[in-house]
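User: Can you help me understand a structure? I only have the sequence.
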Amino acid sequence: MTIYHQNYRKKIFKEVFELSEIAKYDRNNRDIYEESLKAKRDWKNSLDTSFFKGLEAGKLQGIEVGIEKNKLEMAKNAKAMGLNISDIIKLTGLSKEQIERL
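Assistant: Let's start by predicting it. Here is the structure, written out as tokens:
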């Protein structure tokens, strides 16, 4: 038997043992257990939701920063090529001040 199968069997036996212990609870203790289990699941779902929202916000922020850097690089190159500032503004959407600082 592979190590994976041995570990899997141990996990299953542990879960079965825990379930058999819970089955011994009286009604009051089972209700308390189920409430704590629900609270734990709710807490985990809240954390997971927050994590993925934060991850998505971080990705969007990174994309925005990349777009801004691309605009600045494009303006810098256009300025080096001798394009006038009004054309660079139209091309990049950057302000006159941003372009002049390059």
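Now, to help you interpret it: The mean pLDDT is 90. The chain is about 85% helix and 0% strand. Let me know which part you'd like to focus on.
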